[in-house]
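Listing S7. Sequence submitted for prediction.
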Amino acid sequence: MRRQRAMKAPYDVVLIVCEGAKTEPNYFTELKNAFRLSNANVRICGRGSDPLSVVDFAIETFRREPEFDRVYCVFDRDRHTTYSAAIDKVKRTRLGKGSKIFAIPSVPCFEFWLLLHFTYTTKPFDAPAGDSVCAGVIKELKKHLPAYRKGQYDVFYKMQNKLDNAITNARRVEQLHQTSGTDNPSTIVHSMVEYLRDLKKQ
């Protein structure tokens, strides 16, 4: 028997494409469920091994299915060589029909957004050549969330009561970097989270 397609709710239809296969999709799926957003309106997928592949996949998906009002590309800077190209491609891309595409980068990685749930920091993160810059962020995150590991479930639910704190801290970091001359560390995940939180109020 053919499965009936879910009906869309009367608010924006959103595509979120994440670089990570589990960590980010799990977090945003839990957020979507907590905000009671329709599965038909918000699609979340992990795709790509670098920022540019995330952007390319998001654009290709929209070309096949031009039903999305907003397309979000979530990726890390880490040591990716295509980071700047991905940011530039998003800026140059016009989806048409009023739809918009957004880059949602985190520097050095998504875990910095998670860390901001617990504390405000602007300490730059770095690592020896060949190492992941994200390892230092995870080390700091584990001071507050000792059992954290990449790809785990329930991360959003464990920190949901600190979401406002994360948004406030991310805004402060963003404001600082307007004049600091560096984006390490930084994230604009909060802009997408605030949009999703208010999506049903449109």
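Caption to Listing S7: primary sequence and predicted structure tokens for the chain studied. The chain has a mean pLDDT of 93. The CA atoms of residues 60 and 66 lie 10 Å apart.
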